[in-house]
């Protein structure tokens, strides 16, 4: 069985922080930790997080939490969600996520996140 290798690209948050580049790391060796973020439906988040972990997709949970945290940090500085959602999705994408993972992250945030209504409006405005 062939192992799939992933490169971790540099992640820029603001203009100063950069994550270290890791190459040749197998999916099973990756750190898919989940950072806390403002969840409106904690039970729903637990269920979705467990399904993703059991289904072999822990990177979805990690991406969701990174993206939500980046948006929350910038919103705390007075920025509007509709102005930062797209750029923060790219900043959170240090795994070079697949379109399916992005779509799943949008689904999760629009259901469990504290700012889900604003997020849904942003998503609807993109259609």
Written description of the protein model:
A two-stranded antiparallel ribbon has the order 1-4. A two-stranded antiparallel ribbon has the order 2-3. By secondary structure, the protein is mainly α. Residues 1-29 have low confidence and may be disordered. The protein has one domain (37-125). It has helices spanning 42-54, 58-76, 81-91, 99-112, 116-125; strands spanning 5-8, 12-13, 17-18, 22-26. The longest helix has 19 residues, at 58-76. InterPro entries: Tad4-like.
Per-chain topology:
Layout: E1 5-8, E2 12-13, E3 17-18, E4 22-26, H1 42-54, H2 58-76, H3 81-91, H4 99-112, H5 116-125
Antiparallel strand pairs: 1-4, 2-3
The termini sit apart by: 40 Å
Q: Any idea what the radius of gyration is?
A: 15 Å
Beta content: 5-15%
- Low-pLDDT sequence parts: 1-29
Main β-sheet, spatial strand arrangement: 1-4
- Binned, the helix content reads 40-55%
Largest sheet properties: 2 strands, antiparallel
Descriptive labels:
127 residues, mainly alpha, two-stranded antiparallel sheet, 5 helices, 53% helix, globular, Tad4-like
What would you say about this model in short?
This protein is 53% helix and 10% strand. The chain contains five helices and four strands, in the order E-E-E-E-H-H-H-H-H. It has helices at residues 42-54, 58-76, 81-91, 99-112, 116-125; strands at 5-8, 12-13, 17-18, 22-26.
């Amino acid at each position: 069985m062939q192992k799939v290798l992933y490169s971790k690209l540099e992640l820029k948050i603001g203009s100063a922080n950069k994550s270290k580049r890791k190459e040749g790391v197998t999916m099973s060796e990756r750190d898919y930790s989940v950072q806390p973020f403002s969840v409106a439906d904690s039970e729903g988040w637990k269920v979705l997080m467990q399904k993703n972990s059991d289904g072999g997709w822990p990177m979805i949970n990690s991406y969701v939490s990174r993206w939500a945290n980046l948006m929350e940090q910038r919103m705390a500085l007075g920025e509007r969600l509709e102005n930062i959602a797209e750029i923060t999705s790219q900043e959170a994408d240090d795994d070079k996520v697949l379109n399916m993972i992005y779509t799943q992250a949008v689904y999760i945030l629009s259901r469990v996140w504290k700012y889900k209504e604003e997020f849904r409006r942003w998503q609807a405005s993109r259609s």
